[in-house]
Amino acid sequence: MASLRCFLRSGKNAVAALQRSGFHSSAPAAVQVTVRDALNQAMDEELERDERVFLLGEEVAQYDGAYKVSRGLWKKYGDQRIIDTPISEMGFTGIAVGAAMAGLRPILEFMTFNFSMQAIDQVINSAAKTCYMSAGRQSVPIVFRGPNGSSAGVAAQHSQCFAAWYAHCPGLKVVSPYSSEDARGLLKAAIRDDNPVVFLENELLYGVPFEMSEETQSKDFVVPIGKAKIERQGTHVTLVSHSRCVGHCLDAAAVLAKEGIECEVINMRTIRPMDTDTIEASVMKTNHLVTVEGGWPQFGVGAEICAQIMEGAAFNYLDAPVTRVTGVDIPMPYAKILEDNSMPQIKDIIFSIKKTLNV
Fold it and tell me: Which of 46, 58, 158, 293 is the catalytic position?
């Protein structure tokens, strides 16, 4: 009997020790969520949250989307909220912009942003400028979203990055997510914003899984538009990038870390408005800057970052000129080996970093 009491007492003590250690309240493990599913969840939650939100575009409804980003939404919300359109970008973009002016909150999917050229008059002359031309009386809460930049084997007319094109235009907000957290949080913020937002996804990231914490999966989680994220801390050089190239920067940083070079990697998240403060603070710490993007070099995102740094306080902290890593200044070739050599590769980033550091 005494031995039984001793066993029970020791068991109670063990439970008490576990409770004191906080074992019972440890945070749940992060789960893997693909970028495609993160976008789908964000739209689903915002459609449920606000009845003014609706989705339209080519094959977004019955076919579940060309890239399955809108999978299951038509069955859940029906023809009034998830609308298949004819193959007429100028037509359905005009309808969406008009709906936004009338008080609805459309999400418009371009099957690829290359097709947005058919509707650029509606995006810029109608959506972007209306708030200014109405002296602030008329908001245009619309999201233009879809895959942007190079994919694989789709040649010159389907491989452009439109970050610089649309970020050039006042009146638009332009975001470019990298991870599932970015995609989910930024899309929710874009849908809730009263300004027109150009939301540049990447087709090659749709199926890539990223870890997401319980907090980032909350229905209340949003990523503020206009705020960059430091993906990796470093002391020797600042790498600034957006979209898929952020992953290339992280891979290059991992390689260089083995050689004693610590890179600070900044995920821009938003192209316009640009978070210059975060970039400047990093440059003041590392004294070196390399920009990386998939777009063309002339008048690109990297060129704008260079200008902002040169005109600001961080210029006096630079120990070397800013280096840009970009896509090659040609229309995208179709052949795979030429396509690969037309886009920034990890080796190109490493080469530019070592050149900047004079290694």
Answer: 158
